[in-house]
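cache lookup: miss for this entity combination. No prior model stored, computing from scratch. Input as submitted by user K.M.:
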Amino acid sequence: MERHNNLWRNAVALPAVSRVAVCGGTHGNELAGVYLVRERLKRRGADGTEPVSVVTVMSNPRATQLCVRYVETDLNRCFTQAMLSTPVSEASPYEMIRSQELNALLGPKGSGQAVDLLCDLHNTTANMGLCLITYSDRDWICLHICKHLQREMASTPVRYVHFDIPLNEAYSLDSVGKHGFAMEIGPQPHGVVRSAIFSAMQEGVQLMLDWICQFNSGTLFEGGWVDVYTTVKNIDYPRDPETHEITAAVHPDLQDRDFCLLHPGDPMFLSFSGETLRYKGKEALYPFFINEGAYYEKGIALSLARKKRVEIPSVHSETLR
Amino acid sequence: MERHNNLWRNAVALPAVSRVAVCGGTHGNELAGVYLVRERLKRRGADGTEPVSVVTVMSNPRATQLCVRYVETDLNRCFTQAMLSTPVSEASPYEMIRSQELNALLGPKGSGQAVDLLCDLHNTTANMGLCLITYSDRDWICLHICKHLQREMASTPVRYVHFDIPLNEAYSLDSVGKHGFAMEIGPQPHGVVRSAIFSAMQEGVQLMLDWICQFNSGTLFEGGWVDVYTTVKNIDYPRDPETHEITAAVHPDLQDRDFCLLHPGDPMFLSFSGETLRYKGKEALYPFFINEGAYYEKGIALSLARKKRVEIPSVHSETLR
């Protein structure tokens, strides 16, 4: 009982998470999110029993229709404050226009009117399991949701990835919410939906909503520790200096080993002519987004992160008690 | 010695395989073939030691440049006799024009001028290992090459798939050669190159060329049996009758189990609302191309094949002995 009282005394009171957005199809060929959003939109009305207000959004309907990542430019790079405040016309790229529509619907970013939490559904060809990708390593709501998923998801590894970028430079849709993350799940080829990946995403979204409902109802969530992977840098493929074509693939020893520590000297690439190229960094780091299909054009063969343990406080909703 | 003489006496003498074409990038986002062809084109001249004449072709350079399957229409459906003899103009789809260019370069299909063997490199998102896909179940050259790959490739399952279609209706690039097959390797996401898949393809091509060189030099290849998978039918995804959108994914119990016998009543799809749909056929058949990314638009969730054992004779080149 004393421990219980202490928990409450030391807990952080946070505003309720009243308005949630679940978005998919931000990249039109990441199909688990596309079909999950379609399912939710179908059930709308039929199942209005969720005790939290959830808006479900198909972010890029044109790209989804064509089953491509984007039509003119990558929508999920259009949400910086600068881009959101650039005047657009009919001649602007479709995704520039669409990002401002989404910002009007779910934001405005940085304002009190923004949704409380924005969960944007993504898939990757990399063997990343389920990752919550955020811009903050001390967002207690996101970190508690991550802890909840880690506790509840038996067969899917769940990790918390932190992009260390100032919020006004944050470029992705999830940055429009007061809290937000990309829920990134793989491996799944783009343009393909794999049942197990779809189910994991469905489970992740449901567990997130369950947590929010419990939080809003006054449940105290005990603090603890969460491993946070903070991005340090990206590494490009070896390329031909003239044609800029890649000359090597990710090494078989590294492929699919996302979040397994990469040491200096470990094999990183195997060139098409058979030469092994090694990791030349001085610090062992955690690779992820290894051989993500959509990042060839961005010059990213993998990202590297440093891992730290973050202590999170017990939290409860400030609207109750 | 008597066995040896008997082997020669019963062997079939076949014309030498003097001119070989190795094609890749027929689908521009199937990257193992694209990079294999680029590598071969780079080494051209530097390594003119192959004792057989090999022409290496990037089949669809525009699609390859954009990393898409095709620009206007699927090139690998443009090689029927009817399409090859359709007059084209500048207004024709790029791939219609390109198919006739390739037919002029490597064919004409059905003529004595056609290359002796055309190997067209493909990748699939399905877990198919290496397949030689052909239009004949009694092409001794293709079957012997398959047997050679099965014998020599330690870590890759090698199978022979037969599309039971008359040759003039055969629609794919490999049908332009006197002998020909698609060398299809997976699983690999489209738009991604995985090192192990690239290496398997490289090994498959090298073993094919080795076999041809030995064959042309007068080696007798002993006959035997090869399993042939003949396509019976394709099965589409369950779809919404109005929107035509898919309403289910391949069942987790079937996903990745290409060439594992599917029995009547076995789970086939898991709907997005959680319902299991079962295989309703009366005959146990072998599924392949399970959940191939490029076939959503073609209405194919998987293909089903019947397996038979085909006896192939001993063969040698008729130019020697």
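stored under new cache key. The first strand of chain B starts at residue 12 and ends at 14.
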